[in-house]
């Protein structure tokens, strides 16, 4: 059998003489990637951790948009007086998390996973955000400090048209030094239902 075209995979098909055929790969599709560090240091400016245009028709009525971001150096060593806030945006709708207060002088590492689900119609979706960050203890006993963020909500966006999707981050107060958070990579993918 000849090699298939890009974005195809070999699948079983009893109608074929040899029992297999090349079929389009439709289970998942990468939409965006983060390949350059996004650092938010000592500023109150709301900053995109990832932002992209989701093409119309990708969510449909039952597909899932999954966003994954890897985070390092999440800490407040300025004076402990700030909080951090994440937002998940789809079109003109914004889901906002609580104000998180990282433990003073503790360097946290972790990840963010966010999902937007088609919820039965092309104009109804559910959004879920989950962030988990734990103390970096390279070579020492496991750290006890951790920080979690979880929130959810609904969207009513016409998913047949393209719309902007973003995850943003913002410190509530600025500092000269010591307030940091860096995304070192990530991606967005659509999982077909």
Helix content: under 10%
Major sheet description: 7 strands, antiparallel
Strand content: over 45%
The span between the termini is 29 Å
Poorly predicted runs: none
Model description:
- Helices cover 0% and strands 55% of the residues.
- With 193 residues, it is mainly beta.
- A hairpin with a 2-residue loop joins strand 7 (84-90) and strand 8 (93-96).
- The radius of gyration is 20 Å and the shape is elongated.
- The two termini are 29 Å apart.
Q: In terms of topology, how is this protein built?
A:
Layout: E1 8-12, E2 20-24, E3 28-34, E4 38-41, E5 47-54, E6 64-76, E7 84-90, E8 93-96, E9 108-118, E10 125-135, E11 146-155, E12 163-171, E13 179-191
Short summary:
This protein has 193 residues and is an all-beta fold. It has strands at residues 8-12, 20-24, 28-34, 38-41, 47-54, 64-76, 84-90, 93-96, 108-118, 125-135, 146-155, 163-171, 179-191.
What keyword list fits this structure?
four-stranded antiparallel sheet; mainly beta; 193 residues
